[in-house]
Design brief:
Length: about 575
């Protein structure tokens, strides 16, 4: 399907497969605002949806500078901040605080001059970071971040993977009308209070047969660009497809609301005077909204747009690098182009003719079945010597009759006697039960590994307590590490999960149960790059860092109450 925007918003599309045999199209709309005191208007230059993700340097490999917008859906809404903090005028401190508040959400972090005032802790998490990859479960090691949408989405992954914000920066819903308060996150205003002007996007799906239906667009991302003083809202809508190349048009209109006006009801035909932006398919839409995307539909009882075209920012001339995969059109001046885009509106469409009958391809003839050669049938026995010759002049007496001629029966060849070869002398076989090598279970391996890492007892004493030799431990350690690696290569995590659970359980026997509050401190320590110091304060061995993160990330991701509690504790840990 073609996605066309009538108005200031730039749009894009993502074709993906929710399950085998099903195809869906996600429409992505993005609005850019200039952050100004009190009210932030639409920016004259609109940023397009990002097709990829930019990552910080190696010191911030878990954080991204810009999060890609190409997500099929988001269960919760993300609040992100990119760029760098701006110190107050005449600042002489090496550390400042940066904070953001959006509606009922707030977060404050410390920013250091040694880190060039980078606010990476407020930015998006890289999809390869363990906190996110743990949500993929057994598919983590085989997940292709470049072309995951070319294959059906596994039904056993956690959809929260597509949220780029950390847990404490996710909210249930975004309306775009929340009050925004920024401190040291704006290039001109040390402290800024503002509200984005109300923008209401509406989308209509029109199929080739003329049937049309409204598409619900949900706001699920707010991004603050601290370097440029911009804010961006992203809306997403999903429709199912009959097949990937299904023809049709999705028309997106956006209205800028004012306090004394009403949003007009959606219309199937847009105003021909509105400028249009068309998103070309990057990979490839039905009109049924997917049920797993929560949130109330956009209601039309909101303040209305400015009725004149002056509400739109002026159109600018762009290059391909500024506006990828889009182009500006004027509908009144270019009807022929739109006619080519929407052939079903013409009586005699010239392009995109769909076949009316399925092409029948005969099944290939089965290959001829040839019997296998009987290589396992032994050849007939060879005669060892010719029979003795009989001379005609020798008279041989007729043997006497022994008795009545017996009934003829099939002759049975007597097996030749084969001389038995003497067995080759070998070393006496050692029974398996006498082998000194013991096979440890993965839980036993994790327990011993945790005890060795704890360092309270010498290596020899630990192995002696478990009745295992040093050679046997080396063998089992290599065996289980290889097994876990091969298991993850096949997209499975059963061995890794079992190992983490047993490892953390043994660590807790040393220092007591690890609480959710302590996990929150560890997660904040990861973001601040001082996780080792946090572990030392909590009397937790450093080797237990990743087992704890993986184990608790899985628990938090599968329990929404635990998720909300963890987000609250992480916020408290940041303020501490």
């Amino acid at each position: 399907m073609d996605v066309v925007s009538y108005g200031p918003l730039l749009v894009s599309q993502l074709l993906w497969q929710p399950r085998p045999g099903a195809h869906a199209l996600t429409v992505i709309c993005k609005a850019t605002f200039n952050l100004e005191p009190v009210t932030s208007p639409l920016a004259a230059v609109q940023r397009p949806p990002w097709t990829n993700e930019l990552q910080w340097d190696r010191h911030y490999e878990q954080m991204m500078e810009v999060a890609g917008d190409y997500a099929p859906f988001k269960r919760r809404a993300d609040i992100l901040v990119t760029g760098r903090a701006i110190p107050p005028p005449n600042n002489r401190l090496s550390t400042i605080t940066a904070s953001i508040a959006v509606g009922g959400f707030s977060k404050t972090i410390d920013v250091h001059v040694q880190q060039h005032w980078t606010v990476a802790a407020l930015g998006p998490l890289a999809p390869t970071w363990p906190v996110r990859t743990a949500l993929l479960g057994r598919h983590a090691s085989t997940w292709n971040h470049a072309n995951w949408n070319m294959h059906p989405l596994p039904d056993d992954i956690d959809g929260a993977f597509f949220n780029a914000a950390s847990i404490d920066q996710q909210v249930a819903e975004l309306t775009g009308q929340e009050a925004i308060v920024l401190e040291n996150l704006h290039p001109r205003h040390p402290k800024l209070w503002t509200q984005l002007v109300r923008v209401v996007p509406q989308a209509t799906v029109t199929r080739a047969n003329g049937a049309s239906q409204e598409m619900r667009l949900r706001c699920d991302t707010l991004t603050i660009d601290a370097d440029d003083g911009l804010a961006m809202l992203t809306w997403r809508g999903v429709v199912l497809l009959e097949y990937p190349a299904e023809p049709g048009v999705i028309a997106v209109r956006a209205y800028v609301a004012t306090s004394d006006s009403q949003i007009p009801a959606p219309t199937t035909a847009p105003d021909a005077d509105y400028p249009a932006t068309m998103a070309f398919p990057s990979v490839g839409a039905t009109t049924t909204s997917l049920p797993f995307i929560p949130g109330p539909p956009q209601t039309p009882d909101i303040p209305e747009p400015v009725k004149t075209k002056s509400s739109w920012p002026p159109t600018r001339t762009t290059t391909s690098s500024d506006r990828p995969q889009t182009m500006a059109l004027n509908i009144a001046d270019a009807p022929a182009e739109l006619k080519a885009v929407m052939p079903f509106q013409s009586d005699t469409p010239e392009t995109r003719q769909m076949p009316t009958e399925r092409l029948e391809i005969p099944d290939p003839e089965p290959p001829a079945i040839v019997a296998h050669m009987p290589f396992d049938v032994p050849p007939p026995p060879m005669v060892s010597s010719p029979p003795a010759a009989v001379h005609a002049d020798v008279i041989v007496e007729k043997p006497p009759m022994i008795g009545p001629i017996p009934t003829l029966e099939p002759a049975v060849d007597k097996k030749p006697e084969v001389a038995q070869a003497k067995p080759i002398p070998t070393a006496p076989h050692k029974p398996i039960s006498e082998s000194p090598r013991s096979e440890l279970t993965i839980e036993q391996h994790a327990t011993i590994a945790a005890e060795l890492a704890e360092g309270k007892t010498s290596r020899a004493d630990v192995l002696r307590a478990h009745e295992i030799s040093a050679d046997d431990w080396t063998h089992d350690d290599r065996r289980w590490k290889d097994a876990i690696a091969k298991d993850e290569q096949r997209g499975k995590r059963a061995l890794r999960d079992a190992h983490d659970a047993a490892y953390v359980a043994r660590v807790e026997q040393f220092r007591g149960e690890i609480s959710l509050e302590e996990v929150a401190r560890i997660l904040v320590g990861l973001e601040r790059r001082n996780a080792r110091e946090v572990l030392d304060e909590l009397r937790i061995q450093r080797a237990a860092l990743m087992p704890i993160v993986r184990l608790w990330t899985k628990r938090i991701a599968t329990n929404m109450r635990l998720n909300d509690k963890a987000a609250e504790l992480v916020r408290e840990a940041r303020r501490a």
